[in-house]
Amino acid sequence: MKKIPRELLLHMASAVSAEDRDEMAIPSYLHSNPAMRWIAWRRLDVVARFLDDLSRRQALETCVDFGCGTGVLFEELSRHAERVYGIDIVREPAEILVDEWNLDKVSILSPEAAQTEIAPGSVDAIVAAEVLEHIEPLDDTLGLFGSLLRPTGRLLVSLPTENRLYRLGRRLAGFHGHYHESNAASIHQQILAAGFRQARTARVPLPGPLAIYWVTEYARA
Description:
Mean pLDDT: 92
Distance between the termini: 30 Å
Number of helices: 10
Structural class: alpha/beta
Number of strands: 7
Helix content: 40-55%
Order of helices and strands: HHHHEHEHEHEHEHHEE
Strand content: 15-25%
Largest sheet: 7 strands, mixed
Radius of gyration: 16 Å
């Protein structure tokens, strides 16, 4: 997966508030500790691997990156799909990346615009990486996912476990903001209740209590 260079990440960071910068994981991508940098990129590498596997099984004409943040997955999504929509409340960093990398397949939308500009039942894959834990309640968002996806569409989600190891990693990374109300396990149950079924899950970096993130592929139930 193509990584965003340090200078470009710093430029993105300067365009948003400190809170938005932290939530987009920019400090983690730039961390002086190589272990912190590795885990920040590792979960995205797993999402990219899932996308690659999915594209081998079915055509991906249209993909959505929900909560796209810096747009770090845009280039990977553009390799597999003809049309990519990046959706976020804060869009400046993603717009910077689209301009810098000339990502002509990518359109960036607000969540409100996405509901009218993306046709129902037209999306082959939705990626929601490190975003659903920030949304409460999730009913409307999961309903939107269900309406946008084709019957054969897939939802790829990356979520924090919020376990002790995850919290230790946040402290080592220097992040002192609030912890999320939801975690991977609780959000997983909400996704199942919204009409999806679990296709596969990877624990990152290791299984069991050493998992800091869950990366899961869901199909329509």
